[in-house]
Amino acid sequence: MKLSALKTGEKGVIVRVMGHGGFRKRIVEMGFIKGQSVEVVLNAPLHDPVKYKLMDYEVSLRRAEADLVEVINEEEAKQWAALHPEQPGIPADDCEDIVHRVARVKEHELNVVFVGNPNCGKTSLFNIASGAHERVGNYSGVTVDAKVGHFNFESYHFNIVDLPGTYSLSAYTPEELYVRKYIIEQHPDLIINVVDASNLERNLYLTTQLIDMDIPMIIALNMYDELRESGNQLDMHQLGTLLGAPIVPTVGKTGEGVKELFRQVIQIAEGKQKIARHIHVNHGVLLEDKIARIEAFVRKNPEPHHNYSARFLSIKLLENDRQVEGIIRKLDNAADILAERDACQQDILKEIDEDSESAITDAKYGFIQGALKETFQKVQRYKRLMTKRIDSIVTHQVWGYPIFLLLMYLMFFCTFNIGQYPMDWIDAGVNWLGAIVTQWMSDGMLKDLIVDGIISGVGGVIVFLPNIMILYAFISWMEDSGYMARAAFIMDKIMHRMGLHGKSFIPMIMGFGCNIPAIMATRTIEDRKSRLITMLIVPLMSCSARLPVYIIIITAFFPKNSTLILFSMYLLGIVFSILMAKLFSRFVVKGESSPFVMELPPYRMPSAKSVSRHTWEKGKQYLKKMGTTILLASIVVWALSYFPHHAEATEEQQMELSFIGQIGKFIEPIIQPCGLAWKEGVALIAGVGAKEIVASTMAVLYHGDIATSSMTSLAAFCFMVFVLLYFPCIPTCISIKSESTQWKWAGFTILYTTLLAWFTSMLIYQIGSLIP
Amino acid sequence: MTQEIIVYIILAITLGVIIYYIFCQLTGKGRSCPCDSCPEHGGKCHCHEKKE
Q1: Cβ distance A125 to A112 under 8 Å?
Q2: Do A54 and A187 sit in the same domain of this protein?
Q3: Domain assignment present for A373
Q4: Which among A298, A735, A751, B11 is least surrounded, fewest beta carbons within 10 Å?
Q5: Which helix (H) or strand (E) holds A153?
Q6: Coil, strand or helix at A54
């Protein structure tokens, strides 16, 4: 808890002191140090400042200052001790002692954040350190929010946070703002700046901005194996000394160097690391003079630089950072600070004929180039040469598209044809189970529920587990190899013509797996217009939940052209999404789209471990869904088809007289123009919760054999098109709401997708019926 | 008769789980914390504090 939260008369023990530079130094000198007892003596009439007693003297602090001191009181210590019974030496009953003991344990707690450029391997290091299985991939923007992990290492408890990748700490994109805000508000003890060893110059730009923020930092030189293989030489000790942050080489793929990294983190926390110190990135005489002038005005206010370094604020003011301007405007001498900033900017413009923002960027790159000239020897660029060769083929003007389509076709061919074998084995297992239960149980309602409801419903969907895992293995392979970024690159021109951003293609392809993370991934798109349109069209991408429906239909109606039909479904989704994007950008969402600035990472051979882990995670999720959502839906659908029960009726008559039959008959006129009958209508309604339920409902309604359906091939195709385009599942709608922050966009998506599904299926059916 | 009783119990449990799920979705109770993916809160909010 914060010191400011202690009530009058209450005691606590200091766990850590946050804040910056002068403030931190002053407060520590006053005796606010770890392990020290502090007591609230009294609150001033307006609850600010507060008088505290420590070391037998009294001192008053403002609440804003007390907010930066973390303490633990007796109640919190007891709760903590009860929650951590495994912690040795903490008696839960000895009240006086327990606070100090728990405080001592908590002093050995370190909050560390991973910050770095996109695709530099932060999440890989985070996963190795914390034992988590967060998603990684060889393209930027895989992590879109903060992931938290915990682990113990050498008597310390680490709370580590994986932040989204960012190229800088400016205020242009949501990730940049998010990372900056997180660092400032959460007061991490230390930053692990992950730097891609194969791209030092660009990665170190963010490092120079982190140095400005004045927070203890260590550099993880990740993908060090690539640097080693390339033959390039880097004097890490010298570069670390120049940057004021020790550098530890790491390899995210194998975990090499991760232990040493956290050993060094502990050394810094204990003040034993000599390289770790605060330095000033030298921006040159002119800029340094201007920064100092603004800083002098900022320092007149104690408040902001409790959280921010005054130098950081001054540099950001010169860069016209709107968010920092907002902070400054709240200060008493805001007008003076901003006037001084304006004067400095004018001086810079006059003297070097360049705006201050560009001048600072140039100066930072100058500093980096200088540091690298001293420490880095380039020998060859083996990996990039290979990347260039592959790129000359896969992003070729003519061959790029056919190669992309060929890879997609191959993916669906394997999904269907290779998946068919294990699918048949599982199907045989499900049938065997159904036969056993039928044979051994006496006739009755429970037997009907188990055989026709649960085994037909869950078994009808679980058989597609291998297909889904194969599809995911392919997607993972494409993501990890770096091909996915190329797919976005070659699609950029088409996407731009449709009023979208090249980056939009990445969430769209991610949508092949699941629409929800794809919608979350739209956060990496800078301009709101492209972001919103991408969010609206992602539900048209065929997610893996729709795959079971396609396979059921294709196996029954199109066994000879299975791959082609499956491929056409996915292609249709892409075509419709591009067309809808064009419509939306012209009529629904207005605004200019920003230029395409997506990084093309070097190709890397995906490790079998990484691909199999992603595939298994997906398989696990699918199995979990079988035991929850699909099981419940199968029971409900069975109950609706069983009641009211007519013992004398045939199976088909019973189905038509049941509740589900009545619902189906009620909606049948709406879907009849699309060639669909009431059973398909019921399956479509049930699929609103999750698309797999369409397949399980069909399995229950047709007793596991859809070939008995009276649908024609044309109607079956229309049914697949309807499933592809209609109502996104409810969790997807909730994602659209939370990402767009407005229910109206979720509502709009539901409405337009359903209307689009109906009109498209109706047109295909009606036109197709005319062809003899 | 025994089979019918078991089925009615299963249906009652199913209905209960569905109602509880809808209730949780509407009230936020039992739902995974929305701030896990919320940039505004950075994974820290009242739900996390309670859990911790």
Answers
A1: no
A2: no
A3: no
A4: A751
A5: strand A147-153
A6: strand
Rounded distance between C-alpha atoms, residue A503 and residue A522, angstroms: 9
Given A95, A119, A154, the domain boundary residue is: A95
Closest to B11 (Cβ–Cβ): which among A174, A181, A639? A639
Query: Of the ranges A226-230, A538-542, A600-604, which one carries the lowest mean pLDDT score?
Result: A600-604
Range of the domain at A209: 108-269
Tell me if A214 sits within 8 A of A311, measured CB to CB: yes
How many structural domains compose chain A? 4
SS3 per residue for A567-623: HHHHHHHHHHHHHHHHHHHHHHCCCCCCCCCCCCCCCCCCCHHHHHHHHHHHHHHHH
Do residues A576 and A725 lie in contact, with contact meaning Cβ atoms separated by under 8 Å? yes
Residues A356 and A467 in one domain: no
**What is the spatial distance between Cα A736 and Cα A743, in angstroms, rounded to a whole number?**
8
A470 and A342 in a single domain? The answer is: no
Q: Locate tokens 């060929």: which residue?
A: A406
Residues A77, A112 share a domain: no
Cα separation, A345 vs A320, in Å, equals 10
What residue has token string 């088809």?
Answer: A641
DSSP sequence for A311-342:
HHHHHHHHTT-HHHHHHHHTSTTHHHHHHHHH
Residues of B in contact with A639 (CB under 8 A): 11, 14
pLDDT in tens, A182-192: 888 888 889 99
Show Cβ contacts of residue A374 under 8 Å, excluding neighbours closer than 6 positions: A235, A238, A239, A242
B21, closest residue in chain A (CA to CA): A629
Of residues A305 and B16, the one with the higher pLDDT is: B16
Residues 6+ apart with CB under 8 A from A543: A511, A512, A513, A514, A515, A691
Element (H, E) at A99: helix A95-107
In a domain, A725, yes or no: yes
Is the domain of A517 the same as that of A548? yes
Pairwise CA distance, residues A534 & A739, whole Å: 11
Name the residue ranges covered by the structural domains of chain B: 2-51
Give the tens place of pLDDT for each residue, A218-236. 999 999 988 888 888 899 9
CA–CA distance from A130 to each of A157, A220, A539 (Å)?
11, 16, 33
Residue A612 lies in a domain: no
Q: Are A302 and A295 in contact (CB under 8 A)?
A: no
Q: Is A174 an 8 Å CB contact of chain B? A: yes
Residue A131 main-chain phi, psi, to 5 deg: 75, 15
First to last CA, chain B: 49
State the ipTM, two decimals.
Answer: 0.73
Q: Mutate which of A144, A161, A182, A445 to test chain B, going by most B C-beta atoms within 10 A?
A: A445
- Asked if A113 and A260 sit in the same domain, the reply is yes
Same domain, A718 and A661: yes
The CATH number given to whatever domain includes residue A313 is 1.10.287
The answer to whether the CB atoms of A185 and B7 lie below 8 A apart is no
Question: Mutation test of the interface with chain A: which of B9, B10, B51, choosing the one with the most A Cβ atoms within 10 A?
Answer: B10
Same domain assignment for residues A488 and A452: yes
Name the minimum distance, in Å, from the CA of B39 to any CA of chain A.
6
- What pLDDT was estimated at residue A486? 84
Q: Secondary structure of chain A: what % helix, strand, coil (to 5)? A: 65, 10, 30
d(CA A146, CA A120): 16
Q: How many contacts, defined by CB atoms under 8 Å, are there between A and B?
A: 49
Closest CA to A141 of A391, A505, A471: A505
Domain assignment of residue A595, yes or no: no
Yes or no, beta carbons of B7 and A445 under 8 Å apart: yes
The DSSP output letter for A687 is T
Closest C-alpha among A533, A531, A555, A551 to residue A542: A551
- Residue A35's CATH number: 2.30.30.90
Residue A425 is predicted with a pLDDT of: 92
